[in-house]
Design goal:
single chain, 6 helices, mainly beta, five-stranded antiparallel β-sheet
Length: 708
């Protein structure tokens, strides 16, 4: 029940108190005196009983008229969510810490289903004005493969009703909407799963849990699978051995890297559609939402964001190896271990800086570590840098940023505070790296001779104010940006080009901090404008700017000679000979007389695979005997394949052939979906027909195709 007499507080008071109580509960669970599973369960059940009976401990329902995603209708705590343990995830899609929560929620949803009585609801509570736009939230839901229901709480109604104060925050509700637990920040996976498990068990014992369904309709499956490029993140120019410029782009939504020429011909595809963390050749290797890319010699370095790793692509050997990171998120703010042993947290961009040491140029890989709000370095050689600090070869370490999320400039690099650095641009001539400090909505600079950090444009003079954003041209702090993600250095013009992501613009910043809007109208559009552009690169040869136009799923090119903007049409290599994922063979007996064969193909799923109504599921007939006809010769799963077969004794094609057997093939091109992703699959079904006088002239056949 939602309100029995105990102690009287407002919902906001309850949430504030529970925030502190849950910290204490976490410490008690860690206490050696409570390391017994039975004792821990008793402790948590005592907590649930106390707080579920607290007076006024009921959250208000979602306001009517809010826009929802991943469901076919809006949800209500009092109606279709009643009888469920509900986890409210208060998030905003710009926030890296919010992104770190998503794997925890995914793990929870694997353990407890809606039928079990557990529902996760993402309550999107925007920080930036651009994030209030439902079309942007939908793109973020698709990009980050969020499959649970999400509501656009654009006016922060639920946020204020409950008294939430920061992102991310998790609130666990009981089956009548009573607040049980509050978890603030990231890193609560164990508690989240433990509290949900025990709350579910407790309320089931009271017969308060319902196993009813809710109207799910995942938005992720509305995206076309296998499209040329999906949510591209970053882009870079490299030179081939013959001096030609090539475009390298992180095809983030398809979990792969593409290398193409300026005509759009894709020369290399590195990785595959499915998420993974695997080294190997270009076909075997797997990434997970790769972002930043940069080149050095015949190698390309990749910020493999959701694998929390740096990968290296060797163009000569055609291999992918892991340079740094362990494949899971770390929380190290110092580093210093050998690269493949050093845990990282959401690397978002990479860039090469050539440090002069003993009259020798020593390359250093700079890494924007968005997850710990720092810039790290990977050292290829023994290196002596600021304050005579020594770094051993093949180690990876933090070089800029305290780890506190703030806009604090400082002469001492480790005392500076960064706010989700997401883009890097090295000026070798200035011995500097400019970085897009996305959460402070600014572009800042690290002076690479001494490590000093200074502001360039955007943000606020108050280092703690991360909400001073807008779309204003000006100088220094008077200029306003909105969550920029991409920067590139134009040495010929001595300017930094900025992908002002949430303003949907490309701006230029001069060294003195003068910021000017140059391209884009400030609103997202597809008519050669931009929709959350995230990556930039400069082509010297073609005097152009390349843009990874993320939500438009495209690469744009701005010709600075005539100021024209065009979309580069990708031309992926054709692979008609791609082998089938699986082959099936069936035998059919049919009459020698004129006959009709009607075939229905029925998929049978194993594991957690399924179709969604929005994804294409097609079949096509191949190698049909010349005198036979298929009506139609292609179609969608569920529709019948109708084959007309002539009288064998009158079939001229058989005059010189005594074989009574014919065969034909049906190709299935399907998209099968798991909870978190969809994959293209190809199946080949071979039908052997055996003709004789004793068999039927009209057959209707249903064949089951196992998909695993």
């Amino acid at each position: 029940m939602c309100g029995q007499e105990n102690k009287k507080m407002s919902v906001q008071d309850i949430v504030e108190s529970l925030t502190h109580v849950c910290i204490e509960l976490r410490n008690k669970i860690k206490d050696s005196r409570a390391n017994d599973d039975i004792e821990i369960e008793k402790l948590i059940i005592k907590h649930i009983k106390e707080w579920s009976s607290t007076e006024n401990n009921c959250v208000n329902d979602f306001q009517k008229g809010l826009e929802w995603f991943n469901v076919s209708e809006g949800l209500s705590l009092k109606e279709n969510l009643k009888g469920k343990i509900i986890i409210l995830d208060f998030f905003t899609y710009c926030c890296i810490n919010c992104m770190h929560i998503l794997p925890d929620l995914e793990e929870l949803e694997k353990k407890f289903t809606i039928q079990d009585g557990v529902v996760v609801i993402g309550v999107h509570s925007a920080k930036f004005s651009n994030e209030k736009d439902s079309s942007k939230i939908k793109s973020a839901v698709q990009r980050y493969k969020i499959n649970h229901p999400v509501v656009n709480d654009a006016k922060l109604s639920m946020w204020r009703d409950i008294g939430i104060s920061c992102w991310p925050s998790l609130v666990i509700l009981g089956p009548d909407g009573q607040i049980l637990f509050v978890l603030v920040g990231e890193g609560h996976r164990k508690e989240l799963i433990l509290y949900t498990k025990i709350a579910l068990k407790y309320f089931k014992s009271l017969k308060n849990i319902s196993n009813h369904e809710i109207p799910l309709k995942p938005a992720a499956h509305l995206l076309p699978i296998g499209r040329d490029i999906l949510f591209p993140g970053k882009i870079q120019i490299i030179e081939s051995e013959n001096g030609d410029e090539k475009i390298v782009v992180s095809d983030t939504g398809n979990n792969r890297i593409l290398i193409l020429d300026f005509d759009g011909r894709v020369e290399q595809i590195i990785g595959g559609y499915s998420r993974g963390f695997k080294d190997g050749n270009f076909k075997e290797a797997r990434f997970n939402a790769p972002q930043g890319v940069c080149g050095l010699g015949h190698e390309i370095f990749v910020a493999d964001n959701e694998n929390h790793a740096i990968r290296v692509v060797n163009l000569k050997e055609k291999t992918v190896k892991t340079l740094a990171g362990i494949g899971t998120q770390g929380n190290d703010y110092v580093g210093g271990k050998t690269g493949s042993e050093q845990a990282l947290s959401s690397p978002w961009d990479v860039a090469i800086y050539h440090h002069t040491q003993n009259d020798k140029s020593v390359p250093i890989l700079l890494i924007a570590i968005a997850g710990t709000h720092q810039i790290w370095g990977y050292f290829f050689e023994d290196t002596i840098w600021w304050k005579n600090r020594q770094y051993k070869a093949k180690t990876c370490a933090a070089i800029v940023g305290s780890g506190k999320e703030e806009n604090r400039n400082n002469s001492y690099p480790h005392a500076a505070g960064l706010a989700q650095p997401s883009g890097l641009a090295v000026s070798q001539r200035l011995k500097a790296v400019f970085f897009a400090d996305s959460e402070s909505s600014s572009v800042r600079r690290v002076h690479l001779q001494d490590g000093k950090v200074t502001g360039v444009a955007g943000a606020d003079k108050n280092p703690m104010n991360l909400h001073n954003f807008g779309d204003v041209d000006g100088n220094g702090c008077s200029a306003k940006l909105q969550h920029p993600l991409g920067v590139t250095w134009d040495d010929s013009k001595s300017v930094v080009w900025v992908a002002d992501t949430y303003n949907h613009k490309i701006k230029k910043i001069e060294i003195d901090g003068k910021c000017t809007s140059v391209y884009g109208c400030g609103k997202p559009s597809k008519d050669f404008k931009f929709d959350e552009p995230s990556g930039l690169a400069i082509s010297k040869k073609y005097n152009s700017i390349l843009i990874a136009d993320t939500n438009n799923h495209s690469i744009k090119l701005i010709d600075q000679n005539d100021q024209s903007i065009k979309t580069i049409d990708l031309k992926l290599p054709k692979n008609p000979g791609r082998p089938a994922d699986k082959k099936f063979t069936f035998d059919i007996d049919i009459s020698n007389k004129k006959s009709t064969l009607k075939i229905f193909l029925k998929p049978k799923f194993s594991n957690d695979l399924k179709f969604t109504p929005e994804a294409p599921q097609k079949w096509a007939v191949k190698n049909l005997p010349a005198s036979w006809t298929a009506e139609p010769d292609s179609g969608a799963i569920g529709s019948a394949l109708l084959i007309q077969i002539p009288d064998r004794h009158r079939d001229n094609d058989k005059d010189n052939n005594n074989d009574n057997d014919d065969k034909f093939i049906v190709l299935l091109n399907l998209v099968v979906c798991k909870t978190d992703e969809c994959l293209p699959k190809k199946f080949e079904i071979i039908f052997h027909t055996h003709r004789n006088d004793d068999s039927d002239t009209d057959l209707e056949i249903y064949k089951e195709i196992e998909i695993n």
